[in-house]
């Protein structure tokens, strides 16, 4: 059993969800009181958010690479980055460590492909929707086309995450707006939707959506558990 190294704090709500799902998953697979050994490094989200806003991705990459090295030194044998957006700097993190790095896009794309979907909508932060790291990896490595909301809906989706969900606010009006956005993605040919931000699962679930949902967080956790227990 490998020790899982969690890079978290982006936001802490996201990290708490990862920790819960990892432990529920390990108990479900192993039974009894069995859990996977875990090392958690939780960063100050305010620092990371400032780098995001400034477009300082190189700085952010080195910041998280340093955190990953510390996690490995603490005994981690597998690294999981507990956020979608910061996979923008996944290559920098991966190069900084000598242990496997579990990429969230690969975990999500494999399940989408297995379900037979070839065109999906993506909801997440502005950075996840607008930067190419998510869409390019889906397209180039997995043959899946990704569509994102048009403006002003990208701003709406982003603002709900940063102004509400990362502050533990869940609003019915925002849920209704997300459902509307999903319907518009369906009109543009999306066969399913990726929830590309951990906090979105606090707001919307399968019972709310007119399209099948792929929760990147849960799929990432399942992939991490596969690696940890293999």
Label this structure with key terms.
single chain; 230 residues; alpha/beta; Rossmann fold; 2 domains; four-stranded parallel beta sheet; globular; amino-acid racemase activity; Asp/Glu/hydantoin_racemase; isomerase
3D structure, described in words:
It comes from Saccharopolyspora antimicrobica. Belongs to the aspartate/glutamate racemases family. With 230 residues, the chain is an alpha/beta fold. It has 2 domains: 4-103 and 218-229, Rossmann fold (3-Layer(aba) Sandwich), CATH 3.40.50; 105-216, Rossmann fold. Helices cover 52% and strands 13% of the residues. It has 10 helices and 8 strands. A 4-stranded parallel sheet has the order 2-1-3-4, sandwiched between helices. It has a 4-stranded parallel sheet with strand order 6-5-7-8, with helices on both faces. Strand 3 (78-81), helix 4 (90-96) and strand 4 form a beta-alpha-beta unit. The model has no long low-confidence stretch (mean pLDDT 95).
Short description:
This protein is an alpha/beta fold and 230 residues long.
Distance between the termini: 7 Å
- The number of E-state strands comes to 8
Report the sheet-strand fraction: 5-15%
Largest sheet: 4 strands, parallel
Whole-angstrom Rg: 17 Å
Principal-axes shape call: globular
Tally of distinct domains: 2
Spatial strand order of the main sheet: 2-1-3-4
Query: Unreliable stretches, pLDDT < 50, 5 or more residues?
Result: none
Q: Given the structure, what is the number of helices?
A: 10
Question: What is the helical fraction, as a range of percent?
Answer: 40-55%
Q: For the residues shown, what is the average pLDDT?
A: 95
Structural class call reads alpha/beta
| Topology pattern, helix = H, strand = E | EHEHHEHEHEHHEHHEEH
């Amino acid at each position: 059993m490998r020790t899982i190294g969690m890079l978290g704090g982006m936001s802490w709500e996201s990290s708490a969800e990862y920790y819960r799902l990892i432990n529920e998953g390990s108990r479900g697979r192993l039974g009894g009181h069995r859990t996977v050994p875990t090392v958690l490094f939780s960063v100050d989200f305010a620092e990371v958010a400032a780098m995001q806003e400034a477009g300082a991705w190189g700085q952010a990459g080195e910041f998280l690479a340093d955190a990953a090295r510390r996690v490995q030194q603490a005994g981690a044998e597998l690294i999981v980055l507990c956020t979608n957006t910061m996979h923008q700097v996944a290559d920098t993190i991966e190069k900084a460590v000598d242990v496997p790095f579990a990429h969230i896009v690969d975990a999500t794309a494999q399940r989408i492909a297995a379900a037979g979907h070839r065109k999906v909508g993506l909801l997440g932060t502005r950075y996840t929707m607008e930067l190419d790291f998510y869409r390019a990896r889906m397209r180039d490595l997995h043959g899946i086309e990704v569509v994102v909301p048009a403006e002003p809906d990208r701003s709406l989706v982003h603002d709900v995450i940063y102004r509400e969900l990362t502050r533990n606010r869940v609003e019915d009006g925002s849920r209704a707006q997300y459902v509307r956005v999903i319907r518009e993605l369906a009109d543009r040919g999306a066969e399913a939707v990726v929830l590309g931000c951990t906090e979105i699962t606090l707001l919307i679930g399968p019972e709310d959506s007119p399209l099948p949902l792929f929760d990147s967080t849960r799929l990432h956790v399942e992939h991490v558990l596969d690696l940890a227990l293999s």
